[in-house]
Protein backbone atom coordinates (compact mmCIF):
# COMPACT_ATOMS: atom_id res chain seq x y z
CA UNK A 1 0.00 0.00 0.00
CA UNK A 2 1.22 3.52 -0.78
CA UNK A 3 1.65 5.51 2.40
CA UNK A 4 3.49 8.45 3.94
CA UNK A 5 5.81 7.51 6.81
CA UNK A 6 5.39 10.05 9.64
CA UNK A 7 7.93 8.34 11.90
CA UNK A 8 7.66 6.00 14.92
CA UNK A 9 5.53 3.55 12.92
CA UNK A 10 2.83 6.16 12.18
CA UNK A 11 1.61 6.27 8.57
CA UNK A 12 -0.86 8.40 6.63
CA UNK A 13 -2.52 6.55 3.76
CA UNK A 14 -5.33 7.28 1.31
CA UNK A 15 -8.59 5.76 2.62
CA UNK A 16 -10.59 4.24 -0.23
CA UNK A 17 -14.06 2.68 -0.74
CA UNK A 18 -12.67 -0.87 -0.66
CA UNK A 19 -11.73 -0.20 3.00
CA UNK A 20 -15.33 0.60 4.04
CA UNK A 21 -15.60 -2.48 6.32
CA UNK A 22 -12.47 -1.39 8.20
CA UNK A 23 -13.78 2.16 8.60
CA UNK A 24 -17.21 0.92 9.71
CA UNK A 25 -15.61 -1.34 12.34
CA UNK A 26 -13.43 1.53 13.56
CA UNK A 27 -16.41 3.89 13.91
CA UNK A 28 -18.46 1.18 15.66
CA UNK A 29 -15.67 0.68 18.21
CA UNK A 30 -15.14 4.44 18.73
CA UNK A 31 -18.75 5.59 18.46
CA UNK A 32 -19.06 7.02 22.00
CA UNK A 33 -15.81 8.92 21.55
CA UNK A 34 -16.49 10.29 18.04
CA UNK A 35 -20.26 10.89 17.97
CA UNK A 36 -20.26 13.99 20.21
CA UNK A 37 -17.99 15.85 17.80
CA UNK A 38 -18.34 14.42 14.29
CA UNK A 39 -21.52 14.49 12.17
CA UNK A 40 -20.87 10.91 10.96
CA UNK A 41 -19.68 9.49 14.30
CA UNK A 42 -23.06 7.90 15.05
CA UNK A 43 -23.82 6.54 11.56
CA UNK A 44 -20.72 5.28 9.75
CA UNK A 45 -20.67 1.98 11.65
CA UNK A 46 -22.96 0.91 8.81
CA UNK A 47 -20.77 -0.50 6.03
CA UNK A 48 -22.98 0.75 3.17
CA UNK A 49 -22.90 4.27 4.59
CA UNK A 50 -19.15 4.03 5.11
CA UNK A 51 -18.71 2.96 1.48
CA UNK A 52 -20.89 5.84 0.21
CA UNK A 53 -18.93 8.27 2.44
CA UNK A 54 -15.59 7.00 1.10
CA UNK A 55 -16.90 7.04 -2.48
CA UNK A 56 -17.71 10.75 -2.13
CA UNK A 57 -14.09 11.35 -1.13
CA UNK A 58 -12.79 9.09 -3.92
CA UNK A 59 -14.81 11.19 -6.37
CA UNK A 60 -13.42 14.31 -4.68
CA UNK A 61 -9.86 13.07 -5.07
CA UNK A 62 -10.46 12.29 -8.75
CA UNK A 63 -11.63 15.88 -9.21
CA UNK A 64 -8.67 17.29 -7.21
CA UNK A 65 -11.11 18.17 -4.44
CA UNK A 66 -11.84 16.77 -0.94
CA UNK A 67 -9.88 13.66 0.10
CA UNK A 68 -9.56 11.37 3.10
CA UNK A 69 -6.74 9.47 4.82
CA UNK A 70 -6.27 6.73 7.40
CA UNK A 71 -3.76 7.04 10.23
CA UNK A 72 -2.20 3.72 11.17
CA UNK A 73 0.35 2.45 13.66
CA UNK A 74 1.90 -0.88 12.69
CA UNK A 75 -0.98 -1.39 10.24
CA UNK A 76 -3.78 -0.82 12.80
CA UNK A 77 -6.19 2.00 11.96
CA UNK A 78 -5.93 4.47 14.86
CA UNK A 79 -7.70 7.45 13.27
CA UNK A 80 -7.87 9.57 10.18
CA UNK A 81 -7.75 12.97 8.59
CA UNK A 82 -9.44 14.64 5.69
CA UNK A 83 -9.51 17.69 3.55
CA UNK A 84 -13.22 18.36 3.99
CA UNK A 85 -12.67 21.22 1.57
CA UNK A 86 -9.88 21.20 -1.01
CA UNK A 87 -10.26 23.96 -3.61
CA UNK A 88 -7.09 24.69 -5.61
CA UNK A 89 -8.85 27.28 -7.79
CA UNK A 90 -9.96 29.21 -4.71
CA UNK A 91 -6.67 28.55 -2.87
CA UNK A 92 -8.54 27.18 0.15
CA UNK A 93 -8.66 23.96 2.14
CA UNK A 94 -10.16 22.80 5.43
CA UNK A 95 -8.62 20.00 7.49
CA UNK A 96 -10.52 17.59 9.76
CA UNK A 97 -9.19 14.90 12.14
CA UNK A 98 -10.13 12.05 14.51
CA UNK A 99 -8.40 9.43 16.64
CA UNK A 100 -9.30 6.32 18.58
CA UNK A 101 -9.66 7.23 22.25
CA UNK A 102 -6.60 5.17 23.20
CA UNK A 103 -4.43 6.82 20.50
CA UNK A 104 -4.81 10.33 21.93
CA UNK A 105 -2.09 12.26 23.71
CA UNK A 106 0.86 11.28 21.51
CA UNK A 107 0.84 14.08 18.93
CA UNK A 108 -0.23 11.76 16.09
CA UNK A 109 -2.81 14.15 14.65
CA UNK A 110 -0.60 17.21 15.03
CA UNK A 111 2.04 15.37 13.04
CA UNK A 112 -0.44 14.26 10.36
CA UNK A 113 -2.02 17.71 10.05
CA UNK A 114 1.45 19.25 9.71
CA UNK A 115 2.19 16.92 6.78
CA UNK A 116 -1.15 17.80 5.19
CA UNK A 117 -0.54 21.55 5.53
CA UNK A 118 2.99 21.15 4.12
CA UNK A 119 1.51 19.42 1.09
CA UNK A 120 -1.45 21.81 0.60
CA UNK A 121 0.31 25.13 1.29
CA UNK A 122 3.91 24.47 0.25
CA UNK A 123 3.64 21.85 -2.49
CA UNK A 124 0.19 22.47 -4.01
CA UNK A 125 0.36 26.24 -3.54
CA UNK A 126 -2.97 26.77 -1.76
CA UNK A 127 -3.14 30.07 0.12
CA UNK A 128 -5.29 29.36 3.15
CA UNK A 129 -6.01 26.37 5.40
CA UNK A 130 -8.93 26.37 7.83
CA UNK A 131 -9.79 24.35 10.94
CA UNK A 132 -13.39 24.33 12.19
CA UNK A 133 -14.35 23.17 15.67
CA UNK A 134 -16.88 23.84 18.39
CA UNK A 135 -15.47 25.89 21.31
CA UNK A 136 -16.27 23.00 23.67
CA UNK A 137 -13.91 20.67 21.78
CA UNK A 138 -10.80 21.68 23.70
CA UNK A 139 -8.60 18.89 22.27
CA UNK A 140 -9.40 20.00 18.72
CA UNK A 141 -8.86 23.72 19.29
CA UNK A 142 -5.53 22.94 21.00
CA UNK A 143 -4.33 21.32 17.77
CA UNK A 144 -5.26 24.44 15.80
CA UNK A 145 -3.26 26.51 18.30
CA UNK A 146 -0.34 24.07 18.12
CA UNK A 147 -0.34 24.41 14.32
CA UNK A 148 0.02 28.17 14.69
CA UNK A 149 -3.46 28.90 13.37
CA UNK A 150 -5.29 32.04 14.33
CA UNK A 151 -8.85 32.11 15.67
CA UNK A 152 -10.58 34.33 13.13
CA UNK A 153 -14.12 34.22 14.40
CA UNK A 154 -17.08 32.28 15.70
CA UNK A 155 -20.08 31.38 13.58
CA UNK A 156 -22.85 31.52 16.15
CA UNK A 157 -25.29 28.59 16.33
CA UNK A 158 -24.18 27.43 12.90
CA UNK A 159 -24.07 23.63 13.37
CA UNK A 160 -27.11 21.51 14.17
CA UNK A 161 -25.95 18.32 15.86
CA UNK A 162 -27.48 16.00 18.44
CA UNK A 163 -30.59 18.10 19.01
CA UNK A 164 -28.92 21.42 19.58
CA UNK A 165 -27.25 24.29 17.77
CA UNK A 166 -23.50 24.71 18.29
CA UNK A 167 -21.18 27.62 17.61
CA UNK A 168 -18.35 26.93 15.14
CA UNK A 169 -14.91 28.44 15.59
CA UNK A 170 -12.96 29.16 12.41
CA UNK A 171 -9.19 28.92 12.79
CA UNK A 172 -6.84 29.49 9.84
CA UNK A 173 -3.26 29.81 8.70
CA UNK A 174 -2.08 31.54 5.52
CA UNK A 175 0.65 30.15 3.28
CA UNK A 176 3.26 32.90 3.98
CA UNK A 177 2.90 32.33 7.73
CA UNK A 178 3.12 28.55 7.31
CA UNK A 179 6.19 28.94 5.07
CA UNK A 180 7.92 31.20 7.64
CA UNK A 181 7.07 28.77 10.43
CA UNK A 182 8.35 25.79 8.41
CA UNK A 183 11.64 27.59 7.76
CA UNK A 184 12.42 28.00 11.48
C1 LIG B 1 -9.41 15.95 18.42
C2 LIG B 1 -8.47 14.78 18.68
C3 LIG B 1 -8.03 14.19 17.34
C4 LIG B 1 -7.24 15.31 19.44
O1 LIG B 1 -6.42 14.22 19.81
P1 LIG B 1 -5.01 14.52 20.55
O2 LIG B 1 -4.41 13.24 20.92
O3 LIG B 1 -5.23 15.54 21.62
O4 LIG B 1 -4.17 15.22 19.38
P2 LIG B 1 -2.68 14.90 18.95
O5 LIG B 1 -2.61 13.54 18.35
O6 LIG B 1 -2.23 16.01 18.11
O7 LIG B 1 -1.91 14.86 20.33
C5 LIG B 1 -1.80 16.05 21.10
C6 LIG B 1 -1.60 15.61 22.53
O8 LIG B 1 -0.44 14.78 22.59
C7 LIG B 1 0.57 15.44 23.36
N1 LIG B 1 1.82 15.15 22.67
C8 LIG B 1 2.70 14.19 23.02
N2 LIG B 1 3.72 14.18 22.15
C9 LIG B 1 3.50 15.15 21.25
C10 LIG B 1 4.21 15.62 20.11
N3 LIG B 1 5.37 15.08 19.75
N4 LIG B 1 3.67 16.64 19.37
C11 LIG B 1 2.51 17.19 19.72
N5 LIG B 1 1.78 16.79 20.80
C12 LIG B 1 2.28 15.77 21.57
C13 LIG B 1 0.17 16.88 23.42
O9 LIG B 1 0.67 17.52 24.56
C14 LIG B 1 -1.33 16.77 23.45
O10 LIG B 1 -1.80 16.37 24.71
P3 LIG B 1 -2.53 17.44 25.69
O11 LIG B 1 -3.76 17.89 24.98
O12 LIG B 1 -2.81 16.64 26.89
O13 LIG B 1 -1.55 18.56 25.86
C15 LIG B 1 -9.15 13.67 19.53
O14 LIG B 1 -9.45 14.19 20.80
C16 LIG B 1 -10.41 13.12 18.90
O15 LIG B 1 -10.35 12.23 18.05
N6 LIG B 1 -11.61 13.63 19.31
C17 LIG B 1 -12.87 13.12 18.76
C18 LIG B 1 -13.05 13.54 17.32
C19 LIG B 1 -12.91 15.05 17.17
O16 LIG B 1 -13.25 15.81 18.05
N7 LIG B 1 -12.41 15.48 16.00
C20 LIG B 1 -12.22 16.90 15.72
C21 LIG B 1 -13.49 17.53 15.34
S1 LIG B 1 -13.27 19.30 15.09
- Determine the fraction of residues in helical runs and give it as a percent range: 25-40%
Secondary structure tally, helices: 5
Shape: globular
User: Spatial order of the strands in the main sheet?
Assistant: 1-2-3-4-5-6-8-7
Q: Given this structure, which CATH class is correct?
A: Alpha Beta
How far apart the termini lie comes to: 33 Å
- Portion in beta strands: 35-45%
Low-confidence region ranges: none
Largest sheet: 8 strands, mixed
Total domains, how many?
1
**What sequence of helices (H) and strands (E) makes up the elements?**
EEHHEEEHEHEEH
Q: CATH H-level name... which superfamily?
A: Gcn5-related N-acetyltransferase (GNAT)
Could you report the average pLDDT, rounded to the nearest whole number? 97
| Known CATH architecture | 3-Layer(aba) Sandwich
Bound molecules: coenzyme A
Pairing-aware structural class of the strands and helices? alpha+beta
Task: Describe the protein's architecture and organization.
This protein is globular. The chain has a single domain (3-183), classed as 3-Layer(aba) Sandwich (Aminopeptidase). The protein has 5 helices and 8 strands. It is 35% helix and 35% strand. The protein is of the alpha+beta class and 184 residues long. An 8-stranded mixed β-sheet has the order 1-2-3-4-5-6-8-7, with helices on both faces. The model has no long low-confidence stretch (mean pLDDT 97). The chain has helices at residues 20-34, 47-62, 108-123, 138-146, 175-183; strands at 4-7, 10-14, 67-73, 76-87, 92-99, 128-133, 150-161, 164-174. The protein starts with a strand and ends with a helix. The structure holds coenzyme A (COA). Coenzyme A is lined by residues 33-34, 37-38, 97-99, 104-110, 133, 137, 139-140, 142-143.
Amino acid sequence: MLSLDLGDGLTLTALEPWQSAELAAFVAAERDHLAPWLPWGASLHDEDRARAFLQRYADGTAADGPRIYALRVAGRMIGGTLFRVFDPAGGLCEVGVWLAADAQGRGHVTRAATAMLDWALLERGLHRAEWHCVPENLASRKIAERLGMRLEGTLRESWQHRDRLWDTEVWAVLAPDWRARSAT
